[in-house]
């Protein structure tokens, strides 16, 4: 717990924020902070506004952006500065029930002692947020703007929010924070924010407006316009160039959803329990789900191609981009080195393909981004690859990148099950390896056949193989950094792909 003086207010009427040093300790304690373990400093705290809709006895919700810099990057690095959103519920009295979410206690020159808690944990703060989204629906154009016009709550028509619900913060390894309002709505508060449109909001808005059945409908979103930078280019990574920052989105809560990754793991376990059966005979056979998932992705891609710009890029450029990702990947994950030649040869074949069609895609698709509901599969989280800068995540890309992401996930599922299964039953490893391959191949084949509505051409196969390899390389780096004990999963795939 921190108890100290605050940063001074700037006469803007907003409450003071706690000292930036508080955020260094706080960020390290959260699940969602992406810079854990790196040498860093919080060089400033920007107070972007308070959420309208506060009620007597309830908290004031102060939205803060913590400016984080790292000591392990050169001064020329474009992503030297990152902004993390920390909404703080402010109370005049300590709140024992929120002790676990306490950020700091500090003095405000105008308001006296303030006790600040992570607002996502506080039902009073979340109710305040929901009321603002609700009020937006009856404002002109569906927009509720705060007093100094810097925060704007936007609503899409078509759904009345249930204000009687209680909020529940999702737990789990997520890069943002999601809060369910009963079974009515889900609010995702973006943690690492960049100036410009958020791809998740943008894609959900487009697909919701055309009534796509394959995503959770978007109900609204929250923008912040930096008053000092109004009118800048809003498709930029440069915090200095101004424009809009999208801070949160509100969408349909999928009540009957089961996580696609969990379903796949159960299906694999079912097969491992009865290895004498073929995958098609096991109770939890995944082929039907893989087929339906393939059709869903096909539909989503068709809508994205219809409602976002489409173009083509020369195969040589695609090949060069993939090859260009190799050297930094090799530096981060040296285990890739022995497969370099095989990978380079595979990428080079893409150079002979002529023009490759591109449009907006998901960008980081895997089973954990799919939800099976009573009404079919839904695809979530259109933010793209977390490590890519915003402008790259907004660029058109080949739909085969998403297909490859799913194929890699079908490969991961049995290998992840095997990791724990082998601890109890090391003897059966060889049999399970064969069953794992059977499960993965069956799921991949059904998914791919449904996605392509038939067999794919040799050219498409070349492109798909290259995207699968590109993804496995990315995963090798991802696992090296985040889950080093899992790195053999993608590395084994790279070895198989890169074999001469
Ligand atoms: N509309 C929804 N309804 C119910 N659960 C959802 C919905 N959208 C996402 N989820 C669940 O919330 C979790 C986090 O969502 P996701 O968009 O992947 O967040 P993050 O950007 O933090 O990774 C997912 O694992 C998914 O199970
Ligand atoms: O969900 P995110 O957008 O944060 O994606 C990142 O984390 C994923 C792990 O949760 C990672 O996915 C990899 O592991 C999955 C199993 O946990 C597996 O199903 C995927 O196929 C595999 O890529 C993803 O790559 C990363 O960007």
UniProtKB/TrEMBL annotation:
It holds the Pfam family Mak_N_cap. GO terms for biological process: glycogen biosynthetic process. It comes from the Bacteria. Gene3D superfamilies: 3.90.1200.10. The keyword Cytoplasm does not apply. Residues 26-122 form the Maltokinase N-terminal cap domain. It catalyses: D-maltose + ATP = alpha-maltose 1-phosphate + ADP + H(+). One of its GO terms (molecular function) is kinase activity. Signal peptide: none annotated. Monomer. Belongs to the aminoglycoside phosphotransferase family. This is Maltokinase.
């Amino acid at each position: 717990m921190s108890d100290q003086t605050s940063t001074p207010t700037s006469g803007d009427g907003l409450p003071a924020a706690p000292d930036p040093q508080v955020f260094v300790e706080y960020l390290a304690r959260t699940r969602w902070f992406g810079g854990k373990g790196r040498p860093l400093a919080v060089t400033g705290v920007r107070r972007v506004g308070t959420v309208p809709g506060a009620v007597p006895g309830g908290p004031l919700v102060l939205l803060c952006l913590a400016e984080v810099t790292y000591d392990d990057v050169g001064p020329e690095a474009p992503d030297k500065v990152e902004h993390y959103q920390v909404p703080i519920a402010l109370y005049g009295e300590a709140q024992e029930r929120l002790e676990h979410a306490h950020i700091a206690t500090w003095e405000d020159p105008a308001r006296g002692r303030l006790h600040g808690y992570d607002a996502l944990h506080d039902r009073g703060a979340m109710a305040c947020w929901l009321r603002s989204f609700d009020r937006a629906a009856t404002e002109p154009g569906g927009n509720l703007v705060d007093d100094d016009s810097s925060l704007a709550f936007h609503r899409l028509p078509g759904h009345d929010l249930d204000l009687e619900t209680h909020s529940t913060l999702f737990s789990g390894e997520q890069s943002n924070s999601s809060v369910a309002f009963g079974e009515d709505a889900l609010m995702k508060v973006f943690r690492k924010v960049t100036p410009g449109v958020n791809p998740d909001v943008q894609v959900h808005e487009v697909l919701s407006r055309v009534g796509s059945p394959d995503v959770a409908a978007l109900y609204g979103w929250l923008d912040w316009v930096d008053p000092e930078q109004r009118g800048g280019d809003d498709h930029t990574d440069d915090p200095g160039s101004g424009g809009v920052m999208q801070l949160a989105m509100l969408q349909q809560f999928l009540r009957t959803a089961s996580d696609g990754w969990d379903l796949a793991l159960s299906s694999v376990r079912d097969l491992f329990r009865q290895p004498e059966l073929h995958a098609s005979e096991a109770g939890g056979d995944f082929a039907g789900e893989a087929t339906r998932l393939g059709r869903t992705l096909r539909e989503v891609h068709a809508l994205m191609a219809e409602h976002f710009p489409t173009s083509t890029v020369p195969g040589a450029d695609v090949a060069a981009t993939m090859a260009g990702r190799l050297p930094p990947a090799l530096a981060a994950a040296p285990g890739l080195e022995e497969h370099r030649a095989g990978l380079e040869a595979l990428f080079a074949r893409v150079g002979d393909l002529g023009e490759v069609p591109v449009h907006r895609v998901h960008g980081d698709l895997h089973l954990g981004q799919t939800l099976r509901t009573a009404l079919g599969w839904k695809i979530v989280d259109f933010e793209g690859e977390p490590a890519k800068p915003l402008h790259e995540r907004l660029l058109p890309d080949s739909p085969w990148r998403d297909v490859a992401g799913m194929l890699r996930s079908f490969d991961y599922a049995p290998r992840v099950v095997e990791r724990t299964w082998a601890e109890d039953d090391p003897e059966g490893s060889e049999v399970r390896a064969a069953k794992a391959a059977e499960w993965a191949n069956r799921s991949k084949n059904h998914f791919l056949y449904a996605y392509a509505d038939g067999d794919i051409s040799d050219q498409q196969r070349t492109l798909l193989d290259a995207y699968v390899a590109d993804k496995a390389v990315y995963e090798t780096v991802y696992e090296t950094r985040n889950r080093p004990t899992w790195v053999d999963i993608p590395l084994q795939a790279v070895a198989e792909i890169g074999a001469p």
